[in-house]
Amino acid sequence: MSEKVSVDLAYGRTGLTVELPGERTTVVAPAHPPAAPDVEVALRGALREPVAGPPLRERVRPGQRIAVSLCDATRPQPREAMVRALLTELEGIATPEDFTLLVATGTHRGNTDAELRAMLGDELVDTMRIINHDCRDPEMLRPMGTFGDGVAVSLNRHWVDADVRITTGFVEPHFFAGFSGGPKLVAPGLAGLDTVLTLHDAARIASPRATWAVCEGNPVHDDVRAIADGTGVDFAFDVVLNREQQVVEAFGGDLLPMHAAAREVVRELSMQPVPQRYDVVVTTNSGFPLDQNVYQAVKGMTAAATVVKPGGLIICAAECSDGFPDHGSFREVLASEPTPEALLRAISGRTETVPDQWQVQILARVLATARVGVHTTHVTDADLRTAHLYRVDDIATAVAEELAARGPQARVCVLPEGPQTIPYVT
Questions:
Q1: Residue 191 has what DSSP assignment?
Q2: Contact call for residues 339 and 371 (beta carbons, < 8 A)
Q3: What is the CB neighbour count within 10 angstroms for residue 370?
């Protein structure tokens, strides 16, 4: 009997271990640098010694209103530590009452009180002004004009009306915007629905440049940068995380050079070469909070699609504690056509963008080239079938059966951290 290799997959909060045939399995993981020896020092250092422009304290005056944009609960940003670093660094210039914390939800639902407390801690929730952005509430939006390639922009009025605007986030590869963090904390994070729909329209998403680790020349990220730069960010603050979601490095300063510096570090950590395409690719969506639903898990599937053979099999391990989810249009749009190919035709033929169609478009593109099974604790096979997916109860058995069907030369690739690793064929 051939030797097995044990692979620990990022799955929910607890992880998942699978046993796969050692001589036929390639494991591709990002580099795992240690956490910064003193996270508070690293965060404060980014505020005091920015990549570009003056330190944070030189950009804020007493009495000014300060708006801070934060990732929502689907992202593992160390929000509490970053907000506390801002408060400490601005001590003597600004008080907590001068701040408004804006949860940059984009089109996602607002975060609950329990989620906010998990994200920020009880003390900050009880003492600071926190607002969930709502892209569908016209009373929350201000028109800002047209930016980028004809994007009519509206943004959160609390952000627009602030004297000082600070983005905070973390940088990781993004499946159609190149990289997360930086300007995405303005748009789509704090944008109105019409703005988000334009940024995610079928033509932009269909561009071959709208992909992992590409920013310049990517029609999505080009417009995201144009909006943030054109509407104004006074200071940008991002971190890079390791697999334990610990801060490795922090970056601050003027938005665009700060983000460019951060993503070069991420590129070195996450982009990994492989010698071939694979018959089977096992992936994840990086565990909780990133694998809360099928919608988010599309990112892990898309990472796998970069190295799966045409007609191959992708298995995505994603807990999906929040289901598809049931809020939003993702599930409805995904089930609206009988095949992935029909979905792609329908989306490309629309004159208006439907909410969540971009995630469906990307998943349909993956499904047009490979079968996708999902190992999940919370979504039934019947429900997955309506979305052109199917349930995989035992990953090791499913891999063994696929390899047996494909013959002795068949090979499997594993991305234990999912979209934290972007493999590419050399």
A1: B
A2: no
A3: 18
Per the listing, tokens 């952000």 go with 159
CB of 120 closer than 8 Å to CB of 96: no
Residues 238/251, Cβ–Cβ less than 8 Å? yes
Element (H, E) at 308: strand 308-317
Q: What are phi and psi of 36, to 5 degrees?
A: -55, 135
CB atoms within 10 A of CB 406: 17
> What are the residues facing 131 on neighbouring strands?
102
Q: What residues have CB less than 8 Å from 306, skipping those under 6 apart?
A: 212, 422, 423, 424, 425
Residue 139 token pair: 């009373």
User: CB–CB of 324/387 below 8 Å?
Assistant: yes
Residue 399, C-beta contacts closer than 8 angstroms, at least 6 positions apart? 18, 20, 21, 280, 282, 315, 412
Residues pairing with 153 in the sheet: 145
Residue with tokens 């010698």: 275
- Name residue, tokens 């250092």: 45
Strands (E), 180-243: 235-241
Evaluate if residue 209 carries a pLDDT over 70: yes
pLDDT tens digits for range 143-190? 999 999 999 999 999 999 999 999 999 999 999 999 999 999 999 999
Neighbours of 383 (CB within 10 A): 17
Nearest to 184 by CA among 74, 71, 43, 68: 71
DSSP string, 50-90: -SBSS-GGGG--TT--EEEEEE-TTS---HHHHHHHHHHHT
Predicted TM-score of the model (pTM): 0.89
Instruction: List pLDDT tens digits, range 1-14.
Output: 469 999 999 999 99
Position of tokens 């003492």? 127
CA–CA dist 1, 171 (Å, integer)? 43
Q: Measured on CA atoms in the order 362, 188, 295, 285, is the torsion positive or negative?
A: positive
Residues 6 or more apart in contact with residue 167 via CB below 8 angstroms: 68, 69, 182, 183, 185, 186, 228, 233, 235, 236, 237, 238, 255
Q: How far apart are CA 240 and CA 247, in angstroms?
A: 6
Question: CA 354 to CA 200: how far, in whole Å?
Answer: 9
**Distance between CA atoms of 388 and 367, rounded to whole angstroms?**
8
Rounded CA-CA distance 99/148 in Å is: 29
pLDDT of residue 76: 87
Q: Torsion angle, CA of 79/322/402/20, rounded to 10 degrees?
A: 50
